[in-house]
Write a structure and sequence with these properties.
Layout: H1 3-26, H2 50-78, H3 83-108, H4 113-136, H5 146-161, H6 163-168, H7 172-181
Length: 183
């Protein structure tokens, strides 16, 4: 599979993970695996029902994204991309590791709002980097697709207008920064 197609699939999976994370938060399922990470209720694969199913699903999507990002990072390094692209790929990997740590902190400290906000902000920056990689490999005349434009507008809607998300992110400056990341 080409790097561009693989990057596009990684963008879609990242988007799915962010939306599913919003579902975890809005359904109050964030502690569905208990205060444990990476285990879920003391097991590698827990009983899949209720809040546990929702939280565990978020973790599984995150694990798949982790491996896809590692593969993408290796593809970028192997293709002898420009120094700048390699530097951005390093940032992408660093953000992924930081995201894993923030996800664990969210669980260990029982869902503190500021950590959840940082967790989402890192996810948005991570996705912006993935979109940049995907767009940078496209031919000059073909920038964006209807699907990505739709996802972009939908994400803006969620961040700006959804009451549940707005109640978590009360700082206007942070809201505008997240919105601008999708411009």
């Amino acid at each position: 599979m080409s790097k561009q197609k693989f990057t596009f699939i990684t963008v879609l999976l990242t988007y799915l993970l962010i939306v599913f994370g919003g579902y975890v938060a809005s359904s109050e399922s964030g502690m569905g695996c208990g205060p444990e990470w990476p285990l879920c209720n003391g097991q590698i694969i827990p009983g899949l029902q209720g809040d546990t199913l929702i939280e565990f699903g978020h973790r599984v999507i995150g694990a798949i994204l982790f491996f896809m990002t590692i593969i993408l990072f290796i593809k970028i390094r192997k293709e002898n991309e420009s120094f700048f692209k390699v530097k951005v790929a390093n940032w992408m990997l660093d953000l992924l590791i930081l995201q894993l740590i923030m996800g664990a902190i969210v669980v260990f400290y029982h869902l503190p709002s500021i950590i959840i906000t940082i967790h989402l902000l890192i996810a948005m920056i991570f996705m912006a980097i993935l979109i940049w990689f995907w767009r940078s490999d496209q031919p000059k005349g073909k920038i964006g697709s209807p699907l990505i434009k739709h996802l972009n507008k939908y994400t803006q809607y969620i961040i700006i207008y959804d009451d549940r998300i707005r109640s978590i992110y009360k700082a206007p400056a942070l809201r505008s920064c997240m919105w601008m990341a999708w411009m």
